[in-house]
Amino acid sequence: MIPVSQEKIEFIISVAREYREGSLAMVSEELSEGHNSDNYTEHSLAGIVEESKPEEHAQDSAYNELKGAIDTLNEEERFGLVALMWIGRGTYSSDEFEKAISDARSADNQHTAEYLIDTPLLPDYLQEGLIQMDDR
Predict the structure, then answer these.
(1) What Å distances lie between residue 7 and 4, 46, 64, 74, CA to CA?
(2) Is residue 42 part of a domain?
(3) Which residues, given as ranges, of the chain have pLDDT below 70?
(4) Burial 25-61 (b: 16+ CB within 10 A, else e)
(5) pTM, whole model, 2 decimals?
(6) Numbers of helices and strands, H then E, in the chain
(7) Which residues span the domain enclosing 93?
(8) Residue 1: inside a domain
(9) How many domains, the chain?
């Protein structure tokens, strides 16, 4: 059983989507000011966002909300969220959920929020992880 409530996971997915969309829009706006944005695809813009540091987005309310939502989870919830993301990403299968939680516990370094926020496609991985866990 996932140690994080469905409601919390869905909130994190929602805020993560908002954060990613805002980050892409911000990069697109910056590029349009000084460059011909026709040379950039959505994929290349996503890469630019992924390479930017979270500190650069400290003023971004979606970033702060996402970081706060993850930071307020207790340890077991954070481990469960990381395990769920790994399952959605394909690192583990849903049958390996307990192993994924154990590995998340072993890898814990008090920077879970930053790790998850820096993960490309975080909301998609979490959503896929939920689907896979429901199919079990």
Answers:
(1) 8, 27, 19, 15
(2) yes
(3) 22-59
(4) ebbbeebeeeeeeeebeeeebbebbeeeeeeebeebe
(5) 0.75
(6) 7, 0
(7) 6-134
(8) no
(9) 1
